[in-house]
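Give me the fold.
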Amino acid sequence: MALYEPMGPGIMDKIAYGAIVYSGRTGGYGYSFSHPDLNTAEQVARQHCGDSAAQCVRGRNSYLALAKSANGAYGLAGHESSQKAEREALANCVKFGGTSPTVVLLIHTWRGLAYDHVQTPPSGTNPANPPSQPRRRRGFFDPRRIFSRWMP
């Protein structure tokens, strides 16, 4: 189990925890975001995964990523930058024997899901027809951008 927690003043006004859980044995996964503490975030993700022995990455106000390879290897990572979280997840996948891995899941612990493109979705946890290519959101909704005139 890994935890990524960025440090420094003014990271974000809201503190939110999230987790990604992945089972290499079953291929099941789960994720959660916007929870008040780490234990709740991990517990919710494990409920969606269905495997209590699955690997987990947890974080606070950070990006969490899951990378998979066709040969079954996978990697999990977290970072305050989405690109670095993706690169670390890919590197972890290769480190554990993955060949040509791809990032299939990216979340932000406060802002939510960036994209979800798991190749073999477990029943009941993903849409029945996932898109053929990962769909990446261009930007996350940030209420401070809309209400900036009224907020300090």
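The chain has one domain: 2-146.
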